[in-house]
Each structure stands twice: as structure tokens, then as C-alpha cells.
Write a structure and sequence with these properties.
The complex is a heterodimer of chains A (about 140) and B (about 90). Chain A has about 140 residues and is of the alpha/beta class. Chain A has a single domain, classed as Cytidine Deaminase, domain 2. Chain A has three helices and eight strands. In chain A, strands 1-3-2-5-6-7-8 form a seven-stranded mixed barrel. Chain B is of the alpha+beta class. The N and C termini of chain B lie far apart (about 45 Å). In chain B, about 35% of the residues are buried. Classes of the chains: A alpha/beta (about 140), B alpha+beta (about 90). Chains A and B meet through strand 2, strand 4, helix 2 and strand 5 of A and strand 5 and strand 6 of B. Strand 4 of chain A pairs antiparallel with strand 6 of chain B, so a sheet runs across the interface.
């Protein structure tokens, strides 16, 4: 499986992590699934991090915001294909908390490491199910011009 | 009355691959019951064994979380839309 994302949107999600540093950023990837399971990102929707109690190492997207994003995506005949967040001064790898709190099976979870305020690595992981035995699998990211 | 329930991408495989399903109900609880009656595979993804909504499943009536309305007893109108969204969170 792979995640295809236009360069401008790839830069947008990485920049969001720099802007919110030293706090985690988060957002939604809207796009399309094809028959092979490849996801193509058509829009990146930046969200607020509601974990104001611990924004440096936790993120949470307001479900009301998800409802609005999902509704608008469906009207445009698109889907939510994934999410992104940043790891300030921490590797671009999923954590046990990331896995425990991930529930969108088959979607992409993109993580960008931010070091001293600069975006470094961006990796994507596909959540595979079912919920009871879910796991993340490394996913290729294809950045297109 | 008939009302539309929007299904998120991870639950569509258990809902006939549909993104929206019409159900017949007078309140939110009846709507969810009709939904799982039509698509029984959805039940374990929405409800825990004690019959309560799973903790990470959010149910909205239009733009309102039903937990802050009257939960299952929240009355519905034909123009309303119910949306199901699993939560999105994490951290280092």
C-alpha cells in the first residue's frame, strides 16, 4: 500500500508541525482510495490540538471537526483517507499511545519529526485491523509534483 | 421516519461498502438499532459487549454530540443527519 500526496500538501502538513512546535500539530487527509488500496491525498485540513493539558506530547482532534470534514469530503465525493500529526523533538515513528488511540482501520497515519522547530522526517503508517488485533504497517509515501 | 446515517471509511466494509444508510427511527437509539439490524456486522464495531457505545465511537446528530443531548433518547427529525466518527488521538 502507498500514500500519494502532492508536494504542496506535503509541505503544508510539515509546515504545520513547525508552526505549532514545541506542541504537536494534527490534521486530516482527504482524498480517494483506489481499487489497490493506494490513497491519493487531495486536501490537507489542519485541525486544532484539543489536548491543551499536554500539547507537547499528545494530540486529539475535536470529533465535531471530524464530522464537518467528513461531511464536506463526502459532498465532494471524497473520503477521509488518513491523519497527520507531529512529534516535537522525537522520531517520526508511531508510539504505543498512537496505536492504542488509532481506530480508523485502513487509513494512513502520517508522522513528522520536528527537531528544534524544523521538520525533519515524515513517515506514514497504515492502520490494519481488526480493532482487537490492530497494528501499524510501514507505508510508502509518494510525493508528486 | 426515515433518516440518514453517515458511515466513516473504516466501518464501510461492515455496512455493504455504503457511505450513507437510511434507517427508520424516532430517536437516535432506534436509529442505531435499525442500523445494526440492517448490517449486523456493524454491531461489534459500534457497541461493547454490555451494549454501550464503544468509548472511541462518537455519534453526532447534525453538529451535536449525542452525549451532550439526550444520548439514545435524543429525538430526531426527518431533515437530521446522524454521523458516526471514531476518535482521532495519540501522542509520544
Amino acid at each position: 500500500m502507498a500514500l500519494t500526496i502532492p508536494e504542496a500538501l506535503y509541505k503544508k502538513l510539515r509546515k504545520h508541525g513547525e508552526e505549532t512546535y514545541p506542541h504537536e500539530c494534527c490534521g486530516v487527509l482527504v482524498g480517494e482510495f483506489d481499487e489497490t488500496g493506494t490513497k491519493t491525498v487531495k486536501a490537507v485540513v489542519s485541525c486544532g490540538n484539543t489536548r491543551i493539558d499536554s500539547p507537547a506530547n499528545r494530540y486529539h482532534i475535536d470529533p465535531g471537526e471530524l464530522v464537518r470534514i467528513q461531511r464536506e469530503a463526502m459532498l465532494a465525493r471524497r473520503d477521509i483517507v488518513g491523519f497527520y500529526h507531529s512529534h516535537p523533538d522525537h522520531p517520526a515513528k508511531w508510539s504505543t499511545t498512537d496505536l492504542a488511540e488509532a481506530h480508523w482501520i485502513d487509513c494512513s497515519y502520517v508522522i513528522t519529526s520536528i527537531e528544534d522547530g524544523r521538520a525533519v522526517l515524515t513517515n506514514s503508517f497504515q492502520l490494519l485491523g481488526p480493532e482487537e488485533s490492530k497494528r501499524f504497517e510501514d507505508e510508502d509515501v509518494e510525493v508528486t509534483g | 421516519m426515515s433518516i440518514k446515517v453517515l458511515i466513516p471509511t473504516p466501518l464501510r466494509p461492515y455496512a455493504g461498502k455504503q457511505s450513507a444508510i437510511e434507517v427508520n427511527a424516532q430517536n437516535v437509539g432506534e436509529a442505531l438499532n435499525d442500523l445494526v439490524a440492517k448490517h449486523p456486522d456493524l454491531r461489534r464495531h459500534l457497541f461493547s459487549e454490555d451494549g454501550k457505545l464503544r468509548s472511541f465511537v462518537n455519534v453526532y446528530l447534525n453538529d451535536e454530540d449525542i452525549r451532550y443531548l439526550s444520548k439514545d433518547a435524543t429525538p430526531i427529525k426527518e431533515t437530521d443527519t446522524i454521523t458516526i466518527v471514531p476518535s482521532v488521538a495519540g501522542g509520544m
